Amino acid sequence: MDTIVMKFGGSSVADNIRLNIVAEKIIELYNKENNVVVVVSAQGKTTDNLIKEAGELSSRPSDREMDMLLSSGEQITIAKLSILLNRLGYKAISLTGWQAGILTNNTNQDAIIENINTDRINKELNDRKIVVVAGFQGINENTDITTLGRGGSDTTAVAIAAALKAKHCYIFSDVDGVYTTDPNKVTVAKKLESLSYKEMLDISSEGAKVLHNRCVEIAERYNIPIITKSTFNNKPGTVIDDRIEGSTVKSIVKNDDITFISAKCEKYTLELFDKIYRTLLENGIQVKNLINNSTYSLDLSFYIKSSMFNKFAYLLETDLSMLDCTYYNVTRISIIGHGIMNNNNILTDTLDIINNNKCEILSIDINEMKIAIILKNVIPNSVLEQLHSKLIK
Ligand code: ASP
Ligand code: MG
To answer: In the CATH hierarchy, which fold is given to the domain comprising 3-241?
Structure first.
């Protein structure tokens, strides 16, 4: 008997009508003699709403209490779905993260799964139950609830699939699969039939919100094929596995959630550099392309996510008040596909389009499977559209 993991995102489980659609899909696979583990997100906008409500009580709620609060969203979904499956005549059991044996490190709000003790899940599967697990949550060594970062249910699903040596992991959502670019920005974007783990990893780490990027790392490490599909139609989705097709552009990601920061300080000591870097990391602000432009004073330039800017601005008023900063929003365009570095036309065509549109280039980064270009200012989607029509065959 094969084991299959099916993950359903927030919009797929948003209300009772949708839960019925989800239940039908689960039952169909279960009846084909599979062991089925289901992982679900919180319903609809539940997590966003809980964050907003906490914000009304405190501008800086503790990460531990936020995890306690946010994990409740998924718990509602597992219970409702199991109640429904039971009523439809199927043995189903809901498990929270800790009941499912998901052990994480201590980083509240952005925890990493360290181990999964599959005893409980296996016991329930052996009883031919459908096991419904709360995504996004685990438990740390102090028995405190942790969450895995926004969108983390994908990671729960793939990590469980790896621990159970599942045949594959379905990720169901309201989109058909992974596209050649964001269909909200370019209407002619096409759905991809397949992608390699590495291509998918680049697509998600470049800011496309298709899959949580840690889930793709786990899928690659344990070779668990991921199939992303729509909950609401039967079109074939996108398969992500270890097959590699070379030398074509698979996808273009335009990321407008980036702020360029230039930070200066008269006095420059190694301790200061260390303090800045640590302060940013400790506050969950990841920096990219950090460069010191001067040898005798501190003249740093780096990029952060624009969505982190409020946190950064707060640090400039407190721990990092010695810095004198200027900043502006930029766009990063990433062109992704195996072997593209060996095809010079891709780079020249890209640069032609960027020049024709009079976009100023701040940096170009090229590796075996990615060309990443940072452009000064936020550029319009029409540039993405031109790149898409030229580079995607
Ligand atoms: N409910 C969580 C979120 O909204 C986790 C998830 O949906 O994957 O981020
Ligand atoms: Mg998601």
So the answer is: Carbamate kinase (3.40.1160)
Beta-strand ranges (E) seen in 148-236 are 168-173, 194-196, 226-230
Give CA separation, 180 vs 70, 134, 206, 336, in Å.
Answer: 33, 31, 14, 10
pLDDT of residue 296: 82
Give residue 270 CA to ligand 2 midpoint distance, Å: 40
Fold (CATH) for 246-393:
VC0802-like (3.30.2130)
pLDDT, tens only, 152-190: 999 999 999 999 999 999 999 999 999 999 999 999 999
Question: Phi and psi at residue 319, in whole multiples of 5°?
Answer: -65, -30
Q: Contact at 8 Å (CB) between 373 and 361?
A: yes
pTM of the model: 0.89
Percentages (nearest 5) of helix, strand, coil residues in the chain: 35, 30, 35
Q: Which ligand is nearest to the CA of 211?
A: 2
How is the chain split into domains, by residue range? Answer: 3-241, 246-393
- 210 Cα: distance to centroid of ligand 2 (angstroms): 7
Model confidence pLDDT, tens digit, residues 341-392: 888 899 999 999 999 999 999 999 999 899 999 999 899 999 999 999 999 9
Which atom of ligand 1 lies at the shortest distance from residue 152's CA? 8
Q: What average pLDDT is seen over the chain?
A: 95
Residue 60 buriedness (CB in 10 A; 0-12 / 13-18 / 19+): exposed
DSSP states of 223-289 as a string?
T--EEEEESSS----EEEES----SS--EEEEEEEEEEEEEEESS--HHHHHHHHHHHHHTT---EE
Which residues are paired to 102 by β-bridges?
116
Q: How far is the CA of 70 from the centre of ligand 1 (A)?
A: 9
Which ligand 1 atom is at minimum distance from the Cα of 136?
5
